[in-house]
Amino acid sequence: MIHQTIKDQIKDAMRAKDSLKLEVLRGLQSLFSNERIAKGKSDPLLDDDSVLALIRRSVKQRKDSIEQFEKGGRSDLAEKEKQELSILETFLPSMMSKDEIRKIAQEKLVGNKIDKAKIGQFIGGLMKDLKGKADGADVKSVVEELVK
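and the corresponding structure tokens:
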């Protein structure tokens, strides 16, 4: 389980005196605890799907922060966020390439007439099918390219 792996890595980071990794992992552990409390779960460990959803949310926040810091000319803060992002990304499964997404989208499009008005529904359905294995922006660009 990913949650247990993160708990173990907190200990490793403390032993290695890796303060940045320790900070990121403790932040994740805090998110996990809050999620358990919010959902009223008694199990001390969250399932992998819940953990991955929280990690993805953290990754998205880091990417947004990096963009904002770079716009504001704060490259020092952006660099710290990039380092945190690289730590978080080690827990995520590898994402599908645009070519892999295109292949699946084309299979789903066969026999379906998608117009511009229903493109959002199609993208949403495709994202559910891919179950977090693909970046939403990549899926959107591939579908828009195919529906032209």
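(Above: one complete record from the training split.) The helical segments are 2-16, 19-39, 48-71, 75-89, 98-109, 119-130, 136-147.
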